[in-house]
Design a protein that fits this description.
The complex is a heterodimer of chains A (470) and B (200).
Chain A (H helix, E strand, L loop, with lengths): L4 H19 L4 E5 L19 E6 L12 H19 L5 E6 L12 H19 L4 E4 L13 H4 L1 H5 L11 E5 L11 H9 L2 E4 L2 H10 L6 E3 L5 H13 L3 E4 L12 H10 L4 E4 L4 H9 L6 E6 L4 H10 L6 E6 L1 H15 L2 H12 L14 E4 L3 E7 L5 E3 L3 H12 L4 H12 L6 E7 L15 E5 L10
Chain B lengths: L11 E5 L12 H4 L7 H8 L1 H15 L2 H9 L4 E7 L17 H13 L3 E7 L12 H4 L1 H18 L6 E5 L7 E4 L2 E4 L12
Parallel strand pairs in B: 1-2, 2-3, 3-4
Antiparallel strand pairs in B: 5-6
Chain lengths: 470, 200
């Protein structure tokens, strides 16, 4: 049976006097608001009562709200703010005695990952709602079953260890956020949380990032920040971060700052002494290396090769000293001719390999048509050498027989530098006419795989002996 | 362990130590498993006085230790909210029935808290008007007895810890369900339903 309010008031009044008599005015005396703060009205708000607080319990809600998306979660937290505002009308400091990360929705309404992502948003929104209060207490420190939404060791971990992620009022941060390169499920809860909490998202193309955000129901203002406007964006962005705003920085897909001008922004923020965090996400380089199947204990990421053929060859020549695999991004338009040559030399074998790789990478890029293209893998066992003539038609310089010759040649001479020195002699041509465009294994099988994304990846598997390979 | 203050200064950011001095089936389901009980009074009935006393003694000694306070501090938190049951003094306090006192654990908690610069808010484990583990207790049916019992404990705790730096405050009840007036009628307030995950 609920006690009448006058009973509670008498009890609180007597208890207050006992605490003051026993311990003076230092200890705070706290009254639970019972879910109905207005019932107490301004009881104990008078000046003769010192250090009296009201406690709201917010770990359970009877509200019937659809919280299956970030907008619903914000709506719920807005109601929570209203509840705190009601409590404050009693004229006393208000604390939150219990709160949790648990959203009032059945498990069947959402996938476990989706729930975790939403509950992190819920947690960070609540932290924002409570940051001006004199105290809050998460429900609870530990549970033996490690209940995800109720155990502080799990539920608060991101926010305690996430540096200035959400909790420091007025402390801005630049968050460099990796985004999915095709499969939206690769967006981690932390990625979504950081994007949802950002004051602004800097992106290469607002249309591309806009699709990502709308897929997750995130509504945050975006600003274009590609290489053309990067220079003029840096100063205003630093000002915003210094003013306490959270700025998220994304590329169209993958990790920003890898083969794009994003590093300039990060560099400027670090120079200015502003906090920078990286929220890791998928990266095409590591995916492709992992999928290539070649030995990549060491690899060198070149990024994009020069466009002009001569400069490209020059750069490739410089890279021949790399003691490890060489990873190169390249536009499919630039290498399509070379790939065609490779394909011709492969005598149809290339086509048969394509589906394998496509299925191998599964849905890697299924949602981003912009990133369809080719993957080329160079293998150390043997090399196929082609030349490109002045009229841009390419002709294989090495037939099956010569490949065999070169493969044999390599047995006692595994360095590619040696190979490239020998080939001109072997074929009577000069180096600039040679373009290493594909690969065969020692049995003549083509190791060139096609069509994983728009960027062509050239991964060259170097010989074991450092200094001798490409 | 090095302490990091991640949260802003001057305010308390902490955790409840729910399910330590009082048993909660959602915090430590293993204690309740097999007994058919979901709350502490039913557990006493199911296990019997001696077995219950042994279970609760073992649980209190192991569930929260100085190490937990070290970890709480290491995470940048600076406060705990500790539910202290009204029978905290055991036989030395108001009629505890079959419950087991735990004042020595409260002492330990405050010592550990002070060691790691953590503030403690004691919450008196009474739930006026709220269906709770105490619902079979006559005090809920008799508000005057409830009040006397609570006032005794509030007074004793306040004087026991009066000069301690870790003693930040005392909350006079945990869950309260007051009568609420709607126009001319009075109804019991709603404490809010339990979250779906916590329902048996």
């Amino acid at each position: 049976m609920a006690p009448p309010v006058h009973f509670l008031r008498n009890y609180y009044r007597e208890a207050y006097e006992l605490v003051r008599a026993a311990a003076g005015t230092d200890p705070v005396v706290i009254m639970p608001d019972g879910g109905h703060p207005t019932v107490l009205r301004r009881f104990m708000a008078q000046s003769r009562y010192v250090n009296v607080w009201l406690d709201c319990h917010l770990d359970r809600t009877s509200l019937k709200l659809d919280v299956t998306g970030p907008a619903g979660v914000r709506n719920l937290v807005a109601k929570t703010r209203g509840r705190i505002a009601d409590a404050k009308r009693c004229g006393m400091p208000v604390m939150v005695g219990t709160w949790s990360a648990s959203l009032p929705m059945p498990d069947s309404a959402m996938t476990p990952e989706g729930r975790i992502a939403l509950e992190r948003i819920y947690t960070s929104e609540q932290l924002g709602a409570y940051e001006k209060l004199p105290a809050w207490f998460f429900q609870t420190w530990k549970t033996s079953g490690l209940l995800v939404s109720w155990d502080a060791r799990l539920a608060l971990a991101t926010f305690e260890r996430g540096n200035a992620l959400v909790t420091m009022p007025g402390e801005g941060i630049l968050s460099v956020v990796g985004t999915p390169i095709g499969n939206l499920s690769d967006a981690s809860p932390r990625v979504l949380d950081v994007l949802a909490r950002a004051d602004v998202i800097l992106c290469e193309d607002t249309r591309v990032t806009g699709k990502l955000l709308s897929a997750f129901g995130i509504h945050v203002s975006m600003q274009r920040c590609d290489e053309n406007v990067m220079a003029e964006r840096i100063a205003p962005t630093l000002t915003r971060i210094a003013a306490g705003e959270r700025v998220a920085f994304v590329s169209d897909a993958g990790m920003p700052g890898v083969s794009d001008p994003g590093q300039r922004l990060v560099d400027a923020a670090l120079d200015a002494g502003l906090p920078v965090e990286v929220v890791p996400g998928p990266s095409a380089v590591t995916c492709a290396v992992a999928a290539s199947g070649i030995a990549c204990e060491h690899f060198f990421f070149e990024g994009f090769l020069p466009r002009r053929r001569a400069a490209q060859l020059e750069r490739l020549r410089e890279l021949t000293g790399i003691p490890g695999a060489l990873v190169v991004y390249e536009s499919p338009r630039r290498v399509s001719a070379t790939l065609a040559v490779v394909a011709r030399n492969a005598a149809g074998k290339l086509e048969t390999r394509e589906p394998k790789l496509t299925s191998h990478l599964g849905g890697l890029l299924e949602a981003n048509a912009r990133l369809t293209g080719h993957l080329v893998i160079f293998h150390r066992h043997a090399y196929e050498v082609v030349s490109e003539s002045h009229d841009h038609t390419t002709t294989p310089l090495v037939g099956d027989e010569q490949v065999g010759t070169i493969a044999e040649h390599k047995v006692g001479n595994p360095g590619v530098r040696a190979l490239t020195q020998d080939i001109p002699n072997l074929l009577g041509i000069i180096w600039d006419d040679i373009y290493i465009g594909g690969a065969t294994d020692s049995k003549g099988g083509v190791l060139t795989h096609g069509l994983i994304n728009e960027d062509v990846l050239l991964a060259y598997d170097a010989p074991e002996s450092p200094g001798k390979g490409i | 362990m090095r302490r990091r203050r991640v949260w802003p200064r001057g305010v308390l950011h902490g955790v409840n130590l729910t399910g330590w001095l009082t048993l909660e089936s959602w915090v430590t389901p293993e204690i309740f498993a097999g007994s058919g009980a979901l709350d502490e009074p039913s557990l006493i009935t199911a296990l019997g006085e001696r077995a219950y006393a042994e279970v609760v003694r073992r649980h209190r000694e192991t569930f929260v230790t100085a190490d937990d306070f070290a970890r709480i501090a290491a995470r940048g938190l600076n406060a705990v909210r500790l539910l202290v049951p009204w029978y905290v003094y055991g036989a030395d306090g108001p009629n505890p029935g079959l419950y087991v006192g735990c004042i020595e654990h409260v002492d330990h908690a405050l010592e550990w808290a002070e060691e790691y610069d953590i503030k403690v808010i004691f919450v008196l484990g009474i739930h006026p008007g709220n269906p709770s583990p105490d619902s079979e207790d006559d005090a809920v049916l008799d508000p005057r007895r409830l009040r006397e019992r609570a006032l005794d404990v509030v007074s004793s705790l306040s004087s026991r810890y009066a000069s301690r730096v870790g003693f930040f405050g005392i909350e006079l009840a945990d869950e309260v369900t007051p009568q609420v007036r709607h126009g001319l009628t009075l109804t019991d307030g709603t404490p809010g339903p339990l979250p779906a995950q916590l329902l048996p």
